[in-house]
TrEMBL record:
It comes from the Bacteria. The keyword rRNA-binding does not apply. Keywords: Signal. Gene3D superfamilies: Jelly Rolls. It comes from Wenzhouxiangella sediminis. It holds the Pfam family Cupin_7. The keyword Signal applies. Residues 37-140 form the ChrR-like cupin domain. InterPro entries: ChrR-like_cupin_dom, RmlC-like_jellyroll, RmlC_Cupin_sf. This is Cupin domain-containing protein. Residues 1-28 form the signal peptide.
């Protein structure tokens, strides 16, 4: 990816994090809480621009621009998510649907509802929400939330 493209991508990601910031005040305190994936209390915001328009993020706890934020990530069935990376590791639980995840250098894996998945920081990956209904993924990040698109060639490049 060119430096100019990376800069545009970084700006889009910053805009997405800023768009999610309005949600933070509702969840930034230290009170115990229980939030279901269908809760009306969740304010869904946009995903980074390189993901489909139907992709949504709901902040559950923390500030997405700071370490230790938790989110719900939601996409409709039969939705592809392009290859991307994150600065942070991702700790995930699939709340609904079935999702195929393809991590660079590994065989594809299918995450079933209720299953845990771990994504290492910096590892390129793509995904597809399969035809078992909408996919809602709980994701806990160690670092501020980011997502950078990866050129398709790098996912297939020999090691």
């Amino acid at each position: 990816m060119t430096e100019k493209a990376m800069s545009r991508s970084s700006l889009r990601i910053a805009a997405t994090v800023a768009a999610l910031a309005f949600v933070v005040s509702a969840w930034a305190d230290d009170h115990a809480k229980v939030i279901g994936a269908n809760s009306e209390a969740i304010q869904w915001g946009p995903c980074p621009a390189f993901f489909p328009d139907t992709c949504r993020i709901g902040v559950l706890h923390g500030n997405p621009a700071e370490p230790r934020a938790d989110i719900f990530f939601k996409v409709p069935a039969n939705t592809d998510l392009v290859a991307h990376t994150h600065t942070s590791a991702e700790r995930m639980v699939l709340v609904s649907g079935r999702m195929r995840v393809d991590y660079e250098g590994q065989d594809p894996a299918v995450i079933e509802t209720g299953s845990y998945a771990y994504g290492p920081p910096g590892r390129a990956h793509s995904a597809r929400c399969l035809d078992a209904g909408e996919c809602v993924l709980f994701i806990a990040f160690n670092e501020p939330i980011d997502a950078m698109p990866v050129e398709e060639q790098s996912m297939d490049a020999p090691e």
